[in-house]
Amino acid sequence: MWTFLRRRKLPSPVLLVDDGTFEVVAESFDPASSDVAVLSEAEQAGADLSRSLLLRHAVEVPIAASSLAREQLAADGYVVGERISDSASESVADASSASRGMLQLRADRTVRATGLVVAQERARVAGLAARLGGDVHGWQLLAPPPGDRDHAGYDRGDR
């Protein structure tokens, strides 16, 4: 009789954690580029967009607002960390940002990538950064390496 009050618990979504083995399957650092076009090109290049992927935003915020940025991004479901430089030129850019009072962050979130989802997330993060006096430089879509799901960056919260 009271079955409508009992709700079936949905399984918790898979959370991807980049362990350094993830590869970039799509990216855009051009604010004028179409997210749908970038994802289309990635799919034509062989990327499987039907599975869960890691969406990473490169965000720059004032150092004074960095804790607020971290809190607000975390409230939106992002895992926030300091941006890791991959090259010497990026290290110089990071040092330049620090001298201007800015901090480079990365915001990661597990998504099912569609043009609409990526555009909405990009707008959400860009709005937050703009409110805090910062900017978003671009986004990347990362995929775990093919193979065993239990050892490829998946965190189901049971470990």
Structural Rg: 17 Å
Counting helices, strands and paired strands, the structural category is alpha+beta
Q: What is the string of SSEs from the N terminus onward?
A: EEHEHEHEHEE
Oligomer category: single chain
What is the CATH class?
A: Alpha Beta
Strand neighbour order, sheet with most strands: 2-6-3-5-4
Task: Return the CATH topology.
Answer: Alpha-Beta Plaits
Shape: globular
User: So, CATH architecture?
Assistant: 2-Layer Sandwich
Please work out how many helical segments DSSP would assign.
4
- CATH homologous superfamily annotation: RraB-like
What number of structural domains do the residues give?
A: 1
How is this structure best summarized?
This protein is of the alpha+beta class. It has helices at residues 35-44, 66-75, 88-99, 115-131, and strands spanning 15-16, 23-28, 52-62, 79-82, 102-112, 135-143, 154-155.
